[in-house]
Amino acid sequence: xxxxxxRKFLEYKxxxxxxxxxxxxxxxxxxxxxxxxxxxxDFLELVYSEKMTSDLIVLERxxxxxxxxxxxxxxxxxERLNKKVKLLxxxxxxxxxxxxxxxxx
Amino acid sequence: MTNKREYxxxxxxxVMKRFVGNEDAVYVAIxxxxxxxxxxxIRASRGTGxxxxxxxxxxxxxxxxxxxISGASEVKRGEVIGRLHIPSLEKEGxxxxxxARFVQAHGKGIDEVNRLNPYTxxxxxxxxxxxxxxxxxxxxxxxxxxxxxxxxxxxxTTFIQPPPFYDRxxxxxxxxxxxxxxxxxxxxxxxxxxxxxxxxxxxxxxYEDLLEIRREVEETNLDPETLGFINVLIRDFQVCIRxxxxxNISPPVLCEGCHFTRFVCSSVKDPxxxxxxxxxxxLAKARKWLEGEVTSDDIIEMARWALIHRINLVRNENVIEExxxxxxxxxxxxxxxxxxxxxxxxxxxxTSYSPGLYRTAKEIAVEDNVFAEELYxxxxxxxxxxxxxxxxxxxxxxxxx
Lengths: 105, 401
Description:
The structure holds two protein chains of two kinds.
Chain A: H1 4-15, E1 19-22, E2 25-28, E3 41-42, H2 43-48, E4 57-58, H3 61-104
Parallel strand pairs in A: 3-4
Antiparallel strand pairs in A: 1-2
Chain B: H1 4-18, H2 23-32, E1 38-43, H3 50-62, E2 66-70, H4 77-80, E3 82-84, H5 86-91, E4 97-99, H6 101-104, E5 107-111, H7 118-130, E6 132-135, E7 138-141, E8 146-151, H8 163-167, E9 171-174, H9 180-192, H10 207-219, H11 224-238, E10 268-270, H12 275-291, H13 296-307, E11 312-313, H14 319-340, H15 342-351, H16 355-365, H17 369-385, H18 394-398
Parallel strand pairs in B: 1-8, 1-9, 2-5, 5-8
Antiparallel strand pairs in B: 3-4, 6-7, 10-11
């Protein structure tokens, strides 16, 4: 025989779970955050996850240095690419001028 | 004092003014006083204050109106239970029993309980079990009482008391010897109270107030979460997939090859009785009544004293250390259970059978023998309803008959 108290316990536990019914399927939050030491999010979580678990983001020194290095590399690349773009624009203008001159004469 | 909680806080304060160290043990001993027919066992080595603590608690509750019997002396039935009234027998030929003060007293103490003779033990055991005593074919009902006993388990005794007798004690607290600074503290306290710590102890709570407090504690409600935590915790110490309760073989031999060896069950030779659950509920109610709340950490802390004299462990070199380690493991296991959402899944299965959810529940059951037991019960029901075949069940998968 089912105990009323036991059912109350199960219902109480159930009421604490974030669940959703999608058609025939039942989805629920697995609650992995319980094992987390704090409510802080990792930086990589911010980069790769669509959903963040908190408003605070923790950045490790190693990740921060990686990030700085990557930004510097990207800035150098942007500078180099900017120069290339400028040369290509000049080349394009020269080619356009030559083509126009040839068409006119 | 209008607030009855203040009486209990004052009782603890007065005891701690005269007693050094072991504060957690004193606290749980006081919580245990807050329910009807409270019984407490104090275990400690010689001269570590077990008799002092017993007397301080009895004096705090009953003033001088309590009775202590000593197991170390040869106590007779007449002193503990009752004796025949000889004039009635001689003049009228009727057997009238004069009940002993120990039976009638609201406050009862037994010094060195492990030295009681089997006859006295049997009478005290019966009183603790049924709330009554018998002598010369007559019965006397024991009213609400408080029984505090002490013993040094390392002392050689004439008789070994049976485990069911110890099981009747609600909690058993262990006392430690004093550190250097605590010895100074004790000398200071002795000086402050004229070297008479026990006799200086005032009665803090009247008997009527104690009854009222016990009624209030009894009426205190625990939420389903707390009740569930207690029930699951005790079940973890009892459960055995190989039915150790009815087996002639005990762990660790019984556990060889068992899937659940990493759990607490494999460390327990003799599981605790249901009294452990009852006592833990009473302690949780008392704590909620006194402090306004009771957390799962509080229950883990109190469980140590409700289990220690009720179970027999595989490793028993240091029972307190071992039980603390097992309770710590239990704490982690409860967190795992939370993260698996297993009770939510069971609740859904109770509402309706779903093959997908049942598969998930089976996976969980392989990790939790207490959850598995509940799933077996549902499986039985589904088999009867034709929703499940016997070969598909978890029992069949695990090869359990």
